[in-house]
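Appendix B: complex inputs.
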Amino acid sequence: MPSEQPDKSPKNKWVEIESYIQLGVLLPAATFVGWLIGHLLDLHFRTHWIYLVGLGFGIAAGFVQLFRVALKTGDD
Amino acid sequence: MTEELFFTHFLNRYFGGIAARILSAVGAHPVVAGEKSPYFFTYNPAAPITNFFAMEVLVVCILLALFIWTRSRISVDRPGAMQHVFEVAEEFVNHQSEEIIPAHGSEKFTPFLVALGIFILISNLIGLVPGFVSPTATPAVPLGLAIVAWLYYHWHGIRKQGVLKYAKHFTGPMPLLAPLMIPIEIISHIARMMSLTIRLYANIFAGDLVTLVFFSLIPIGIPVIFLGLHLFVALLQAYIFVLLATVYLAGAVAEEH
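Resulting structure:
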């Protein structure tokens, strides 16, 4: 994904702060969405294991977001 | 069951029949209030229009009336108070999107972002008026707004870059990792929609609840502090929703390197 905050004006500071707050919601939300997609696929295919894969992808998605923000902060 | 508001009662009295027919046509099942139902998508046949929907209709009516009234009195030489308010809102959002979406023609997104912000703000604030509730304190309304913002930024990403180039946003920097990155990116984007919904809903619901609890505990003086807090939260949440929609738009229309 592209960089979200190109310069360092005071408003972009707010955007930066907001992206940290966003992480607090995004981490559990990504985990839940991953689990939900897996669960729905399980219901559709009548299986009992896709939810675990979905959960794994969801946790990974949350951490990818976390690393992106961390790397962006490191660059700045 | 939640108490039916005066405006909801009014709408149900005159438009309840039409609403019930529309809901049946789209597959909703009539279930009398208090009864258990195996169906997920249901409505109460005695009052098919819910409080949150009635409040949304009211907010739209208020905004339409304000826009028509301001448009009829618009003046370059002697702008009125409402014209000033709307101009400030438009300039604020326009300036913000110019900063966040540089060199991408951000001004074309301003009408959508201003409309979104004003609708959320009025929806948040209407709960402060006795006899009304904030529609944003019901998860369906923030979810609807989040879906609109989500579709809007994807649509502009595809319009600006084409389907294939936009799809590269989802594949990550290394083609080998694409099978791993695509589901991760899809989940991240759906999670954005969810986080927008939860944040707005939870803040407004909590604000309403805290104000209500303190009104019932100490009806004089103290609730004013919480009303002030609710006012601040309403403003902040409208701002954050628009800000995040702008940040997501910036990500969607930016070239992937």
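The helical segments of chain A are 10-45, 50-75.
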